[in-house]
Amino acid sequence: MKILGTLFFCLLANFVKAQLPSDTLVTYVTFENLKGEIAGYGTSINRPIGTGAFKNIADRSYLSLRMAKLENSYRWPDGSRIDFTKRRSEHTSTGIVDRYILVNPSTKDTLSLFVDPYHIDSTFFVPKGLIVLNKAVLAKEIAPQLSAIEKINTAKNVFSSQQDSINKIANYIASRIGVINFVDRENLAKVMTDTQASAELKEFLFKIYVINRFYALGKNISNSKVYALNKMRESFNSFQREHPDIETGNIKINLN
User: Fold this and answer.
1) Cα 152 from Cα 44, distance rounded (Å)
2) Range list of H helices, 46-134
3) What is the pLDDT, as a whole number, of residue 12?
4) Mapping DSSP to helix (H, G, I), strand (E, B) and coil, where does residue 75 land?
5) Contacts of the segment 92-97: beta carbons below 8 A, 24+ positions apart
6) 236 closest CA partner among 217, 221, 225, 249
7) How far are the Cα atoms of 5, 28, 116, 178 from residue 119, in angstroms, in the given order?
8) For 173-228, what is each residue's pLDDT tens digit?
9) What is the DSSP letter of 117?
10) How far is residue 177's CA from residue 126's CA, in Å, rounded to a whole number?
11) For residue 13, is pLDDT > 90?
12) Which of 107, 118, 159, 236 is exposed most, by the fewest CB atoms within 10 A?
């Protein structure tokens, strides 16, 4: 009986571990080359976090991606998200930096975080008073999105009934992580460049692919690209049955 109990808990531990997000998803949402805590980093005006968000001010998608990295990389010690809305710019001897006034929702303590959006660090560190985002915290945060994707994938007439849910998740991914991380040219190019297919259909399939690639990485499913491609195929087949009157071009051929 004792042996069976031990085996059960070992299996349970492996199952829980398997439900944690993949390493790939963590790298998508956090700063590249992110190390541990270092004195003064981010909390001193002379050692700001170099996000590089304004390196190309005209590239709005890059700006959004770098800001998302800043907001995703760190959490309060209890794992709660950080509010970055309180910001002002300050002049230093080397240029302009942003000062964020962070308020810990649990203790109400404040922390000044200095960020340099004009330069990019080659190595990032964790400011004192904060922790780096970990898989357990990320799993909790994305759980509602993953559940919503499961409902979409099991719904009937997805194209007609689930557009609002699909758009909400797609917008979440775009604002929190960046859609570009989930776009795989080898799986999407032929579908998206089909000039005969309906633009509405192509947008639908694109979003289905993106949200399912995100889902696979969030659930640590092996080969997330294949998983997303199969879901896109399933959605297209369902779409054909439900909407035979809408032009599909050569997508059927391109998805085989």
Assistant:
1) 46
2) 60-73
3) 43
4) strand
5) 92/45, 92/46, 97/45, 97/48
6) 249
7) 55, 20, 6, 20
8) 999 999 999 999 999 999 999 999 999 999 999 999 999 999 999 999 999 999 99
9) S
10) 19
11) no
12) 107
